[in-house]
Amino acid sequence: MEQPHHHKREACRLCGARNLECVLELTPTPPANAMVPAKLLDQAQQCYPIDVYFCESCHHAQLLDIIDPSYLFEEYVYVSGTSSANVDHFRRYADQVIGVAGLEPGDLVVEIGSNDGTMLRFFKDAGMQVLGIDPAQSIAEAATADGIETLPEFFTPELAERIRREHGPIKVVVANNVCAHIDDLESAVTAARILIKPAGVFVFQVSYLLDVYEKTLFDTMYHEHVDYHRVGPLQPFFERLGMKLWDTYRMEAQGGSLRGYVSMAESDVAVQPSVSEMMAQEAAAGLDAPTTLRNFARSINRSGTELMSLLTGLKSRGHSIAGYGAPAKSTTLMYHFGLGPEVIDYIVEDNPLKHGMYTPGLHIPVVSTDALYEKRPDYVVILAWNFAEPIISMHRKFTQQGGRFIVPLPLLGIR
Ligand SMILES: [Zn+2]
Fold first, then answer.
1. 290 preceded by a cis bond (ω within 30 of 0)
2. Which of 55, 195, 345, 390 is 20 to 30 A from 318 via CA?
3. What pTM, to 2 d.p., does this model score?
4. Could you give the domains of the chain?
């Protein structure tokens, strides 16, 4: 079926092979961040497939259904500087990059998908020149006004040529939580290659498939994340583009991330043991075989069935049920498990910007957490379940007054 703002690719994003097998079929959803204001509730939202394909050649897991990035990202609202844990993470990260790349005051650092410039600010404070690139217009404008010059563009070879003409080749290009967002990753990496010196580095950090798999983070799978990266398929990808992935780290950030350092193939930097060690861990977990993700899909579906039978039972006995948290990933969780308005009355949320809005597609109202004490729902399903512990501690009063939290994953529990 022809859908607006959508196309389906036919070849693997990393190796170009066409033998791709669908291993994990999630329920189609609208774009996960497309919260709806009251005045637009009468407009139906288009749902798009979230089918994860496994490449039989390089074993890379990916989506082939692509929503146009201009439609998805130009209105993007996620702002990275907002949580203090994030800010600390970027400070340490910037220090590591300065050391590895031998950055000196005056050197230019370019970041792709620089968002509000949180990380670039640490480079700037250390005396470097910085340039952000982020297609989200309003975020780019705000970052520029705040002293971090940010081009509101997609990172292409043409843009890289332009920057190189102006500044010469540079030592570092950084890409945080953006490599999984780019349909034409080859073009973005080629652009980085154009921009960096022979001895320069391309540093990226992405959500790590091994963590998604081990921690059941399937709800991080939505249209913005077209790739589920790990070292195994990335290593030959960079090699094909004349580069080498020479150091990798497993990080706690974003529920589990992979950080990688890449240089030109001809650079004399030594490949660290971490690269083959992480590849061995991925192979040991079974990620080189399509059956592993097929079994993962079955286990997710069992969790959903179990949760829904609990919730529909509670509902039929007359209990009220609310949700907690409306992050982008709750869209995947709610659609795939069937958590619609017939089960969830409303969602409480910490972020005041979301109050008064409705969830994408399902149109469940989002309200302030005050509702826990004013409306007193009997049960609250924690949709932002990766934050279950802090949420439960923050709302002891709710449970003391007889309310109960339901934690849906990784194991269903009532608290
Ligand atoms: Zn492939």
1. no
2. 390
3. 0.94
4. 80-288 (3.40.50.150), 291-414 (3.40.50.720)
Q: What DSSP element (H or E) covers 234?
A: helix 231-240
Residues, beta carbon < 5 Å, ion ligand 1: 12, 14-15, 17, 55, 57-58, 60
**Cα–Cα dist 246/103, whole Å:** 18
pLDDT digits (tens, 9 = 90+) for 233-282: 999 999 999 999 999 999 998 889 999 999 999 999 999 999 999 999 99
Distance 233 CA to ligand 1 centre (A): 7
- Is there a contact between 255 and 218 (Cβ–Cβ < 8 Å)? no
Name the H helices within 241-387. Answer: 273-284, 290-316, 329-337, 371-374
Q: Residue 262 belongs to what H/E stretch?
A: strand 257-264
Category of 11 on φ-ψ map: left (φ > 0), alpha (ψ -120 to 50) or beta? beta
**CA 102–ligand 1 middle distance (angstroms):** 34
pLDDT digits (tens, 9 = 90+) for 134-186: 998 888 999 999 999 999 999 999 999 999 999 999 999 999 989 999 999 99
CA of 17 to the centre of ligand 1 (A): 5
Q: What does the alpha-carbon distance between residue 213 and residue 201 come to, in Å, rounded to a whole number?
A: 29
Q: Which of 412, 384, 414, 413 is nearest to 302 (CA)?
A: 412
How would DSSP label each residue in 71-137? HHHTT----GGGSHHHHHHHHHHHHHHHHHHT--TT-EEEEET-TTSHHHHHHHHTT-EEEEE-S-H
The Å distance, Cα 394 to ligand 1 centre, comes to 44
From 143, 118, 145, 148, select the one nearest 131 (Cα to Cα): 148
Distance 68 CA to ligand 1 centre (A): 22
